[in-house]
């Protein structure tokens, strides 16, 4: 991860200088004329899989699969995982797909410094929920159905709360209760999660505390 961070600006700089073909040609030539290259960093023009998080790469390399059973051993030498082949029934993993809606200034992107979470909609194992922040919504919303296709039936239980703090507290509480093993979002790593964490901190709530209790 540190190497990736150090090299990203190098790659961007080198890409501006030459295309990949020229770079490969220069590297090949360097094998014959090393004395002509002043800095080998100038030859780095690409990073592969740089956007794959470390824990994902670790799981891929070690063939660790969601839903299978493992024995986990912790010792002074580190942590090892041993696949359990005698347990064939998959673990019941709860899946939570969620999305947030926020306020924002005209023609501006939402800013967690001052914008509010207006509502959170989420589905857990096919059951829908919607939490409404009445600071932003003019009247109570009743339970509703949203079924875009027959195979995606959606009945939503709606809860109206008085403000953003109550909205975040209720969502955290529900997550503690159901303990989802998998979260599904659209651009959640870069928007929904950071925004929720910032707004929670604004109200003196630590998302870390919630995660540790799941």
UniProtKB/TrEMBL annotation:
Q: Tell where it localizes.
A: Nucleus
Judged by the first EC level, this protein's enzyme class is transferase
Q: Where is the DNA-directed DNA polymerase family B exonuclease domain?
A: 46-202
Q: Spell out the Pfam families in the cross-references.
A: DNA_pol_B_exo1
Give the EC number(s) under which this enzyme is classified: 2.7.7.7
InterPro entries per UniProt = DNA-dir_DNA_pol_B_exonuc, POL2, RNaseH-like_sf, RNaseH_sf
Q: How is this protein named in the record?
A: DNA polymerase epsilon catalytic subunit
4Fe-4S in keyword set? yes
Q: What is the purpose of this protein?
A: DNA polymerase II participates in chromosomal DNA replication.
- Catalytic activity from the UniProt record: DNA(n) + a 2'-deoxyribonucleoside 5'-triphosphate = DNA(n+1) + diphosphate
Q: Which SUPFAM superfamilies match?
A: Ribonuclease H-like
Please give a single GO biological process term from the UniProt record: base-excision repair, gap-filling
User: What GO molecular function terms would the record report?
Assistant: 4 iron, 4 sulfur cluster binding; DNA binding; DNA-directed DNA polymerase activity; single-stranded DNA 3'-5' DNA exonuclease activity; zinc ion binding
Protein family according to the UniProt entry: Belongs to the DNA polymerase type-B family.
**Cofactors, names only:** [4Fe-4S] cluster
Is Metal-binding included in the keywords of this UniProt record? yes
Q: Which UniProt keywords apply?
A: 4Fe-4S, DNA replication, DNA-binding, DNA-directed DNA polymerase, Iron, Iron-sulfur, Metal-binding, Nucleotidyltransferase, Nucleus, Transferase, Zinc, Zinc-finger
Reading the lineage from the top rank, the first entry is: Eukaryota
Q: Which organism is it from?
A: Ambrosia artemisiifolia (Common ragweed)
GO CC annotations on file: epsilon DNA polymerase complex
